[in-house]
Amino acid sequence: MLLACLLPLVTAAAAAAGFPSVIPAVHSFEPSASEQPFKLPTSRPLLIAVDAAFAASTDSDSTALTLIPPTLLAFAHTFSADLQQLFPGTSAQVQIQVSSASARNADVFLTLLSPSQRANVTLHDGTRTPEDYRLEIAPAAVAVRGSGARGAFWGTRTLLQALLLGGGVLPAGVVSDAPDWGTRGFMLDVGRQWYPIGFLTELCAYASWFKISEFHTHLSDNVELRDPKTTYARFRLRPSDPALAGLTPHLNETYSREEFEDFQASCAARGVTVIPEIESPGHALVITQWKPELALSTDPTLLNISFPDTIPTVKSIWQEFLPWLHSKQVSIGADEYDADLADDYNDFVNTMSNFIWQQSKKTIRIWGTNEPSNTTSVSKNITIQHWEFFEDDPFELIRAGYRVINSDDAFQYIVLKYSDGYPQKLNQTRLWDGANTVTGGIWDPHVFDRGNSSNNPTPENPLLAGSIMAAWNDPGPNATTYLEAFYSIKAGLPVIAAANWQAASRPNHLTQAQYLASFPRLEAAAPAQNLDRRIKSAHAVVVEYNLTSTSKRPGAKVKDGSGNKYDGTWVNGSVKTPLGSKGHNYTFLIEVGTHNVSGPLLTGPDDSFGFTPSGNGSTLAFTSSNTLYSLSNYTLPASTSTALSSREIIVTGTEGGTSAFVDGQHAGDFVIAIDGNSAILAPMAFVAPVQQIAGTVARFVLWDGVQDISSISRSSNSSLSMDN
User: Fold this and answer.
1) Among residues 351, 205, 322, which one has the least CA distance to residue 260?
2) For residues 109 and 51, is the Cβ–Cβ distance under 8 A?
3) Are 97 and 131 within 8 A, CB to CB?
4) Measured between alpha carbons, how far is residue 438 from residues 77, 107, 429 in Å?
5) Three-state SS at 339
6) CATH number 2.60.120 is the correct assignment for the domain at 541-712
7) What is the CATH number of domain 183-525?
8) pLDDT tens profile 326-366
9) Which backbone phi and psi does 639 adopt, to 5 degrees?
10) In angstroms, what CA-CA distances link 158 with 26, 209, 272, 341, 697?
């Protein structure tokens, strides 16, 4: 039952129990004098009531960037689904309650704060926000009160995380919470690497779990220029206008309007706004490959802005896609253009800003770029996304009246797989204790300059929007699998989210110790996604099939010997399993006839594994996103060279790499030559594909964790040992 009023409160210092270390940390928790906690019901369904007065409410204020805001009722249904996923023994019902009397029977009551309460909570700069909320936790019920629908949704994230960390139990009291910055985001370079739309949707769900508000999708770009005609360059949105068909010759690497709109809606349903970026006039090789006459003569990756057809072409691209894009702000990129053409650049940016506003009433943002003009400048209606001091001075921009997003590369840049200058994961030592090169300290978005604290704005400066971390794919499309992008950002993104939610100067800012204690459990439980590709198993052996002991007729069952009951079925000469991919860490073993040296052995939704020709023989290979990754410098022994009728292949996988063993001997590790340079090799981390097993396989076993090869291999010659 929902209490009509809050229980008497005592100070935090006198409280016997604190609040769980959720990520981000809450701004304040005032424990109740009552020692009785709230407990999830286990013997009956949990009732979620939505206040009828606000069930249809959406966030429509100026700080909400999405044009498709969910209602409070829609957020309640998302909360219900997540609750049941995180606590499988709990069923939940969502009801709209017309009166406060009927709401007293609810276990969780979702509503909005009163106008007077909303006025008291703001962003760090004093701006009112719909993202703040209160949790009123009583022994029998929890009330979630948001300033807006999104605030109530963020309250449900805190509620779920706290229940998870508390084993379904919450201390009674009141949580008051709000973000310090509205822009809490991450960017993924989708231009230089193809990402399935389902992966992007899962990534959005993961980010939402930590109250990230923006997913900046970098939709067009090129790798380092070699041959202007053949260098990898892609544009990811699929036009319907035939006049734009030359922009996307690789249709299998594009998103349809329906796919991209569904992606945006899925993100919005979890409080995250997709901010699309279409890059020009720099990083525009994909446009000049289509229309070479638009290229600057000195650099084909740059558009010749002064050429008569250039701006009309860029406008035609935006005109095609603006109706797809459901955000109040978009990015035109405008990064790294020729500084000698500063006036042309500024005119281009302002022209595009005016055009996009006239067409859609959307504002734009651009990357900070060094354009040293003494006569022109970009409009102050344009948001600047700072990334490097040699391109701009962010504090000077703020003093000049520009709204600035902090994406400074000293803290928030990573380049996937390999880079001379950037890490592959965020430098957490720097984030937790490197805000200043002398005094250290926790980083937050007001810190741009590590060496000179006077060159940073105050946290409450109204022109400081927040921050966005950036994950780039400079090495190109074959350097990583799409899941490796998640491995690179999953630990750092919650730290960025926490730093944007609470300034480092706040007394209850998340500490590194709290983060380290809570993150593993929260990461594993993030709802509506399975980017770790986890498979439930009662023990180390996840699945085991003996394919020779069963009929191969269509529909025949293949019993799972692991005890997990993942029985397979013969379909068209192969075994279809109820599984998909097994993430890290894992080990799998395959026994296959020595005469079988071609084709796939295992297939899954993320990759496949099998044989591929190599020289005069065959080797082992994974295939991911239509890219073949073969085992270098290894050829399978000829069938006549072994006395055994079958060959044993063992593969181990971690987020750090993938290794193969044949008949008990180490055959090699899967690596990629960065930019084709064999002197720079980087490991590939593949997941185990277990959706379909080829009929040529005699036996298949999959383990959770990296196993001791000598203990699982049939070969008596193996002396290899690997730690779990």
Assistant:
1) 322
2) yes
3) no
4) 49, 50, 14
5) helix
6) yes
7) 3.20.20.80
8) 999 999 999 999 999 999 999 999 999 999 999 999 999 99
9) -60, -25
10) 8, 9, 16, 49, 47
